[in-house]
Each structure stands twice: as structure tokens, then as C-alpha cells.
Structure to design on (292 residues):
């Protein structure tokens, strides 16, 4: 039963992230991006650590090392995305970040020697086409696009590592370690200029919500879910984030419903449906031998 809940849970996480696009945009206008990320991730790690402090003691040295590596991968991914967004459009950023869904099966195949099934490649292709239709309006390659592409590569590496190293029993502790490492990394990067964040409620209330719900809660669910899903299935689920961002943009910000949003979103949903059929097929082989 828990395995059947893993994919829907990950889709819920993407819905949460999609719903926070507007909030993140408003907050980053009040503080430098690295300072905002440092506060967000350190606060999230602190909340989880204070809630269940004993969980960190259950990790072995190897698990600690795995958690630190995954945190570094995630931190570098966020940095590439954050710095790249300063030099390109939000739509292009969303599409290139979504290219992690293409990198993931390649990485899984090369590094882990996992066999990638035709249905998985079909889902990856359909999802990529959907992301492109939703977001791309002209394509150029520059510094911003290169940095975001680097971020997408590290997001894919993080997804693969999470599916390979996460287990149901250590999901909570691994989440604390990962978020803490991202926070420290961003803090170090922003250290030369000092931590520059406003002290008013218009900043801290949304940041607290982002830290607790969209970071601590979301990454805890992702870590738990990926203990039960292959990396490629997880990456396909994460492509739903721009779809939900578009939906909430229409509902909350009054964005126009365009053919691009409808058609692109439909293709991503079709890719997810293919993935759902594969992950809920009764006759599944053991996870250690599962086809990606």
C-alpha cells in the first residue's frame, strides 16, 4: 500500500512547489536569493531537527556521508538555477530545469547500469515535449541557460542518488542532513556580503511557510517516496511542477489560459499516466532489479 501511495505523494509535493512560485518571486524581491535560500533551508532543517532530534543519532557514518553528498548535489542545483535565472526568462528557466527528466534515465543507465524500458523513454519524451510547449518562446544559449542546465544536471543527480540511497527508515534523518547542507552552502556563498534579510513580517511569514511546508514537509515526503520509486519515475512526477505553477497562476494571479498551457500540461499528464500504469502493475519485479 505504501508503494502505491509514493507516486501520488510526490505529485502532491509538486503541487505544493507549483503553488509557491508567486510567493518565492515576492520574497526574492526583498532579499538576495542566496540569503533567502540559506534562511529557508536552515529554518526547515532546524524545525525537523527540533521536532525529532534523536533521529540524527540513528544514521551510520555511511548514511551521514550519503546525506551530505545529496545535500551538496541539491545545493549546487539550486545555485545553478538561482544564478541562471538572473540572465534568462522564467519560462526558459522552467523548461531547462525540467530537462532533469531527460538527464535522469541517462545517469541511471550510465552510473547504475539500469535498463531503461521503452515505455519510460516514451513518457520522458512526451513530458519533455509538454514542458517545451508550455514554456519555450524562442531559444538561445547563454550564461543563464548554461547555469540552469548545470542545475538541471545536478537536480537529476540528486534524484538518482535519493532513489539509490534513501530507505523508509532513514528518510527523516536524511532530510535533515540534506536541508542543513543546502542551507550552510548558501550561507557560505552569501557570507562575503553578510546575511541581508529584512526583519518585517511581510518577509518572515511567507518564508516560515515556505520553510515548514514547501521545504521541510515537501522534501521529507520526497525522500520517503523515493525510497519506494525509481529515479526516472520520480523525475517524471517532478515535471508536474510547472503544470501546477500554470494552474495556480491562472487561479491566483489571473494569468490567461493559453493553448500552450492546456496542450503542454495535457502531455505532461499523459506522461504521468504512463508512469502510473507502470508503477501500479501488479506483477512487479523486486525494486533492486526493477527496470527504470
Amino acid at each position: 500500500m505504501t508503494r502505491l501511495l509514493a507516486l501520488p505523494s510526490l505529485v502532491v509535493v509538486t503541487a505544493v512547489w507549483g503553488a509557491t512560485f508567486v510567493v518565492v518571486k515576492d520574497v526574492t524581491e526583498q532579499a538576495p536569493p542566496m540569503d533567502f535560500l540559506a534562511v529557508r533551508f536552515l529554518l526547515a532543517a532546524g524545525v525537523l531537527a527540533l521536532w525529532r532530534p534523536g533521529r540524527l543519532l540513528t544514521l551510520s557514518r555511511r548514511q551521514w556521508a550519503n546525506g551530505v553528498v545529496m545535500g551538496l548535489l541539491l545545493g549546487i542545483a539550486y545555485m545553478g538555477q538561482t544564478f541562471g535565472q538572473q540572465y534568462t526568462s522564467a519560462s526558459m528557466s522552467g523548461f531547462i530545469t525540467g530537462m532533469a527528466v531527460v538527464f535522469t534515465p541517462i545517469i541511471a543507465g550510465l552510473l547504475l547500469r539500469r535498463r531503461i524500458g521503452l515505455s519510460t523513454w516514451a513518457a520522458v519524451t512526451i513530458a519533455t515535449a509538454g514542458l517545451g510547449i508550455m514554456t519555450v518562446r524562442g531559444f538561445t544559449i547563454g550564461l543563464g541557460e548554461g547555469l540552469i542546465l548545470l542545475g538541471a544536471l545536478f537536480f537529476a543527480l540528486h534524484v538518482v542518488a535519493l532513489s539509490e540511497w534513501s530507505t523508509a527508515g532513514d528518510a527523516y534523518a536524511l532530510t535533515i542532513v540534506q536541508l542543513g547542507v543546502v542551507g550552510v552552502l548558501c550561507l557560505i556563498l552569501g557570507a562575503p556580503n553578510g546575511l541581508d534579510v529584512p526583519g518585517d513580517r511581510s518577509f518572515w511569514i511567507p518564508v516560515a511557510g515556505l520553510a515548514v511546508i514547501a521545504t521541510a514537509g515537501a522534501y521529507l515526503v520526497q525522500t520517503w517516496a523515493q525510497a519506494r520509486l525509481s529515479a526516472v519515475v520520480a523525475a517524471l512526477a517532478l515535471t508536474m511542477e510547472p503544470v501546477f505553477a500554470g494552474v495556480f497562476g491562472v487561479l491566483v494571479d489571473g494569468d490567461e489560459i493559453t493553448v500552450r498551457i492546456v496542450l503542454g500540461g495535457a502531455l505532461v499528464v499523459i506522461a504521468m499516466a504512463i508512469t502510473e500504469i507502470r508503477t501500479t502493475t501488479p506483477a512487479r519485479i523486486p525494486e533492486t532489479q526493477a527496470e527504470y
About this structure: Confidence is low (pLDDT under 50) at residues 281-292. The chain has one domain: 2-279. The chain has 13 helices and no strands.
